[in-house]
């Protein structure tokens, strides 16, 4: 006759068997160190008064690695705006706003007041583009994007007195939000703006994520929140996938999708910025000028485009 085991004894045997099984698994598990890309420093948030490193010299602050190049910053914004990234969508499409706006290229809102003039400047027919009977060319898409990107940079620099002392990871978050929202709607993020200006980047991230905008854009806001709080791109998945090919030399410039060459021409200040874009095959040239104007109602940045 087999002796009966008490419930307590049965439970003990099950526990011992489970522990034995788990110990056998440990011998087959190889523990690899975390990659340097997601180092421990990346998990730290900002603290009041900490500018978060200097973007021109990211190597000077190893706790703020890795950062983004100028080309990566542009690609980051473009990929947040469009699934086609810097190539943009040549055909009109609805954006993610509620209610949606007809858009084209890299998030170019066709409802904006200057849309007809800017499309005419790049040689496109506004009515036909909006109706879906005309698509934009790669040069037109890149020219419109560059103009809006430079305006977003100038507006971000106007709002944040410490902008040029921030890491490029934090700069690109502010540029991305300014590009997406425009200066009027971005100005409503008063708590976020104050937190960035006082160096409290963790609070800035929390305020960003607790917004109606964050619910509308979803993963875009989550990614921006991570970059703002960490001051670096800790997760490789947050890096843009398709980056323009930069040119060598001190003049800068890069080649964009569709064989578009973008060459910075400088300006009178960091806010006044001119760039030439040309179609290498067709020889068409476009010039974008971002100008900051100060008046009775405040300081604003705007773009002008001329193609020849």
Structure description:
- α5 packs across α6 (168-186), α6 (168-186) packs across α10 (219-230) and α7 (190-197) packs antiparallel against α8 (201-209).
- The strands form two sheets. Strands 4-5-6-7-8-9 form a six-stranded antiparallel β-sheet, with helices on one face. A three-stranded antiparallel β-sheet has the order 1-2-3.
- 39% of the residues lie in helices and 17% in strands.
- The protein has 308 residues and is α+β, with helices and mostly antiparallel strands.
Rounded to an integer in angstroms, the radius of gyration calculated over CA atoms is 25 Å
| Mean model confidence by pLDDT | 79
Q: Which class of secondary structure composition applies to the elements?
A: alpha+beta
Helix content: 25-40%
Report the major sheet: 6 strands, antiparallel
Count of DSSP H/I helices: 10
Tally of DSSP β-strands: 9
| Rough outline | globular
- Please indicate the percent range of residues in DSSP E strands (runs of 2 or more): 15-25%
Stretches where pLDDT is under 50 for at least 5 consecutive residues are: 7-41, 44-60
């Amino acid at each position: 006759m087999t002796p009966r085991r008490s419930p307590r004894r049965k439970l003990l045997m099950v526990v011992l068997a489970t522990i034995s099984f788990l110990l056998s698994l440990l011998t087959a598990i190889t523990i690899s160190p975390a990659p340097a890309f997601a180092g421990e420093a990346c998990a730290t948030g900002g603290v009041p008064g900490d500018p978060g490193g200097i973007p021109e010299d990211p190597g000077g602050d190893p706790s703020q690695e890795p950062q983004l190049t100028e080309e990566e910053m542009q690609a980051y914004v473009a990929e947040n705006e469009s699934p086609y990234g810097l190539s943009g969508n040549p055909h009109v499409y609805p954006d993610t706003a509620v209610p949606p706006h007809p858009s084209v290229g890299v998030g170019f809102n066709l409802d904006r007041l200057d849309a007809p003039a800017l499309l005419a400047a790049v040689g496109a027919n506004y009515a036909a583009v909006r109706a879906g009977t005309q698509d934009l060319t790669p040069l037109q898409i890149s020219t419109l994007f560059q103009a809006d990107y430079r305006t977003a940079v100038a507006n971000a620099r106007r709002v944040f007195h410490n902008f040029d002392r921030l890491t490029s990871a934090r700069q690109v978050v502010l540029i991305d939000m300014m590009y997406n929202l425009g200066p009027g709607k971005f100005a409503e993020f008063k708590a976020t703006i104050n937190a960035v200006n006082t160096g409290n980047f963790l609070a800035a991230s929390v305020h960003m994520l607790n917004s109606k905008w964050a619910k509308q854009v979803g993963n875009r806001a989550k990614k921006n929140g991570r970059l703002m709080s960490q001051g670096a791109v800790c997760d490789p998945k947050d890096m843009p996938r398709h980056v323009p090919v930069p040119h060598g030399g001190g003049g800068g410039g890069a080649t964009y999708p569709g064989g578009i060459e973008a060459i910075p021409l400088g300006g009178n200040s960091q806010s006044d910025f001119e760039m030439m874009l040309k179609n290498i095959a067709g020889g068409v040239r476009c010039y974008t000028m971002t100008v900051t104007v100060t008046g009775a109602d405040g300081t604003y940045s705007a773009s002008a485009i001329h193609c020849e």
